[in-house]
From TrEMBL:
PANTHER family: RAS GTPASE-ACTIVATING PROTEIN 4-RELATED, RAS GTPASE-ACTIVATING PROTEINS
Residue ranges occupied by any C2 domain in the UniProt entry: 1-105, 116-232
GO biological process: intracellular signal transduction
Region (Disordered): 736-757
PROSITE patterns: C2, RAS_GTPASE_ACTIV_1, RAS_GTPASE_ACTIV_2, ZF_BTK
Tree of life domain: Eukaryota
Keywords: GTPase activation, Metal-binding, Repeat, Zinc, Zinc-finger
Source taxonomy: Eukaryota, Metazoa, Chordata, Craniata, Vertebrata
Biased amino acid composition, Polar residues: 738-747
Protein name: RAS p21 protein activator 4
Domain Ras-GAP: 302-512
Molecular function as annotated in GO: GTPase activator activity; zinc ion binding
Length: 757
């Protein structure tokens, strides 16, 4: 049994931010920290005081986390980025909103005395004495202290205060993982109510020392315990915090939901998994109808989550194609008009969206990546709508004469035709590059739709069914928001964003097979029609080849791909090579292209496919693939052993114990994460439990209106038996959760000795 916690985070927008630049504006972005560990950085929105981000993240984290903080920053090219303000949500606040914390929150000023992080290792003893007892405080070491100096470290020392007396440790230069091993003693009076205060400071030569955090010890509790030792989390000095007014730093709109799940052993979920798999294998021909029943009882708000959980569960069981085929048949059976097929947010549509993101992301990058990069690099002004043309933004066509509106429109059309043509050509060449399971799924979709809508009048319907997912729900969203699909590290500026939007509209027209309805919506897209019509023919030829795959070829291709571990992360990293010591010595960087799978970490001098990843994404990926490693070290050295000591903690033993604890639990969830079958089963169980009353109502309806209060002990042959089995499985899982040991969040070590100030 394991406790899993996750955060669903959506950073929506900001408003009324203060101007930080001389232009009277700001370039805001957000950084998200969990217990002072940075995990997310949004895109920078340039030159605005009311930025819109709209970025969503899923974060896995330990149940014992304390708070999540959102920092709004102003990016500066020539100096250190300015801090505008922050919003901090504690775990208790999030737990008090089971449906999620949502709304506008005022930004608060960032007080340096509150920006603390790290832990300190103390040994506390009450010793007998001739006249009075003595309090001994041994300051051993600290880890993960906040870097306060420009070199990315601090010069920490510790100040111990008790009853007016103050003693200090030595200063450890340039380290966030210092070791002191120094002991201090104070006379202890019985019944004294004063607390022992241990403060960490960063020493500065020319300015005031920076506060790093403190621990307050209840001496009376220590008197009873006599001796305590452990790691203590550094706390902010709230007694010095100034009263801050709200509203003058602007506001941030957030949607944050905390979800705690107790995941039982795999054997507990086997009956649920087997029952659902049996339903999928039987398809619409079987007596059970659990999948449509799940769709019927799932609200619109949580349909995407349920679809993703089911898709990942069946993907792990090798039944993703069968599950989607069942959903295709169910949707086709209730669709009478061909032009409405797969246009709603049904379970089939949501599941197919999730499937393409899980199985087709690398394929998307290989096809779209070069075109998106070219759009970003060119930064051309592109506009087809005459009402939005701004000639002054374009520049001059000659030395003196500015371009006319007609010239701007023609040049824009040429640029978009070139991008659209390049994209369609790349797509047509990618038949064999498309993953085997994606090809097989599209083939099954094509066949099912052609069987449901035969005849010449519905000739294009099977093609539109494929493009409704491939173009409208996969390629077009990736073109409009390339950062959200990891095609770029940052959002596009306003000019590039407009180009991408127009290109996405053109792709949608091609995906709609250039129907009159799609052309009538925006008549100013007419200059692209020759390329769109040519693209329709190209796309139909591509789909024909895509779905025309022999069974043997498909099995061989699937077998080949199954032998290859899917990459978790891939892209370039810069390896620093120091050629000498001292500021005058030369150093260089070596660029290598790394690929991380669930089995190995490899590198090469040249990339097979270009993919830019930020450092925190690499760290997150490394944590994910090592999270189940039984030999995972409890601590490690975040620095290097250079000369005769570790750069992080200055230990002189190369094989010495690590100075920083291994954090393997705070990770970003992405589509290419390794599957966690037990967690997916638990999330499906949690959803079914929330709609159990509706399932019971359906069971009574199928039982002829009988007021059944318990599930039949043994299944019969009636159609409702699958539902009866499901209700029994839910009952058994509920009992398993009730009988499992309480899984309360892990407390900090020696937390009883800390006073809440």
């Amino acid at each position: 049994m394991a406790k899993r916690s996750s955060l669903s985070i959506r950073i929506v927008e900001g408003k009324n931010l203060p101007a930080k630049d001389i232009t009277g504006s700001s370039d805001p972005y957000c950084i998200v920290k969990v217990d002072n560990e940075p995990i997310i950085r949004t895109a920078t929105v340039w030159k605005t005081l009311c930025p819109f981000w709209g970025e969503e993240y899923q974060v896995h984290l330990p149940p014992a986390f304390h708070a999540v903080a959102f920092y709004v920053m102003d990016e500066d090219a020539l100096s250190r980025d300015d801090v505008i303000g922050k919003v901090c949500l504690t775990r208790d606040t999030l737990a008090a909103h089971p449906k999620g914390f949502s709304g506008w929150t005022h930004l608060m000023e960032v007080d340096p005395d509150e920006e603390v992080q790290g832990e300190i290792h103390l040994r506390l003893e009450v010793l007998p004495g001739a006249r009075a007892r003595r309090l001994r405080c041994s300051v051993l070491e600290a880890r993960d202290l906040a870097p306060k100096d420009r070199n990315g470290a601090s010069d920490p020392f510790v100040r111990v205060r008790y009853k007016g007396r103050t003693q200090e440790t030595s200063i450890v230069k340039k380290s966030c993982y210092p070791r002191w091993n120094e002991t201090f003693e104070f006379e202890l009076e019985e019944g004294a109510a004063e607390a022992l205060c241990v403060e960490a400071w960063d020493w500065d030569l020319v300015s005031r020392n920076d506060f790093l955090g403190k621990v307050v010890i209840d001496v009376q509790r220590l008197w009873a315990a006599q001796q305590e030792e452990g790691w203590f989390r550094l706390q902010p000095d709230q007694s010095k915090s100034r009263r801050r007014e709200e509203g003058n730093l602007g506001s941030l709109q957030l949607e944050v939901r905390l979800r705690d799940e107790t995941v039982l052993p795999s054997s507990c979920y086997q009956p649920l998994v087997q029952l659902l798999c049996q339903e999928v294998k039987l398809g619409v021909q079987g007596p059970g109808q659990l999948i449509p029943l799940i769709e019927e009882t799932t609200s619109t708000e949580c349909r995407q989550d349920v679809a993703t959980n089911l898709l990942k569960l069946f993907l792990g069981q090798g039944l993703a194609k069968d599950f989607l085929d069942l959903l295709f048949q169910l949707e086709l059976s209730r669709t009478s008009e061909a032009n409405t097929l797969f246009r709603s947010n049904s379970l089939a549509s949501k599941s197919m969206e999730s499937f393409l993101k899980v199985a087709g992301m690398r394929y998307l990058h290989s096809v779209l990546g070069p075109i998106i990069n070219k759009v970003f690099e060119e930064k051309k002004y592109v506009e087809l709508d005459p009402s939005k043309v701004e000639v002054k933004d374009v520049g001059c066509s000659g030395l003196h004469r500015p371009q006319t509106e007609a010239e701007v429109l023609e040049q824009s059309a040429q640029t978009l035709r070139a991008h659209l043509g390049a994209l369609l050509s790349a797509l047509c060449r990618s038949v064999r590059a498309c993953p085997a399971v994606v090809r097989a799924t599209f083939r099954q979709l094509f066949r099912r739709v052609r069987e449901r809508f035969p005849g010449a009048q519905h000739e294009n319907v099977p093609f539109i069914a494929v493009t409704s997912f491939l173009c409208l729900r996969f390629f077009s969203p990736a073109i409009m928001s390339p950062k959200l699909f990891h095609l770029r590290e940052r959002h596009a500026d306003a000019r590039t964003s407009r180009t991408l939007l127009l290109l996405a509209k053109a792709v949608q027209n091609v995906g709609n097979m250039d129907t009159p309805a799609s052309r009538a919506k925006e008549a100013w897209m007419e200059p692209l029609q020759p390329t769109v019509r040519q693209g329709v023919a190209q796309l139909k030829d591509f789909i024909t080849k895509l779905v025309d795959i022999e069974e043997k070829d498909e099995l061989d291709l699937q077998r080949t791909l199954s032998l290859q571990a899917p990459p978790v992360k891939e892209g370039p990293l810069f390896i620093h090579r120091t050629k000498g010591k001292g500021p005058l010595m030369s150093s260089s960087f070596k660029k290598l292209y790394f690929s991380l799978t669930t089995e190995a970490l490899s590198f090469a001098k040249t990339p097979s496919s270009k993919c830019v990843n930020e450092l925190n994404q690499w760290l997150s990926a490394l944590r994910k693939v090592s999270i189940n490693n039984t030999g995972l070290l409890g601590s490690y050295h975040p620095g290097i052993f250079r000369g005769d000591k570790w750069s992080c903690c200055h230990q002189r033993e190369k094989t010495g114990r690590g100075c920083d604890k291994t954090r393997s639990r705070v990770t970003l969830q992405e589509w290419n994460d390794p599957l966690d079958h037990d967690l997916e089963a638990q999330l499906i169980y949690r959803h079914l439990l929330s709609v159990e009353a509706m399932l019971w109502e359906k069971h009574r309806e199928l039982s002829g209106g009988a007021e059944a209060s318990t599930v039949p002990a043994s299944p019969g042959e009636a159609p409702e038996d699958s539902l009866a089995r499901l209700l029994r499985v839910l009952r058994d899982l509920r009992e398993a959760h009730s009988s499992s040991p309480a899984s309360s969040p892990t407390l900090e070590p020696n937390c009883l000795l800390e006073l809440q100030t």
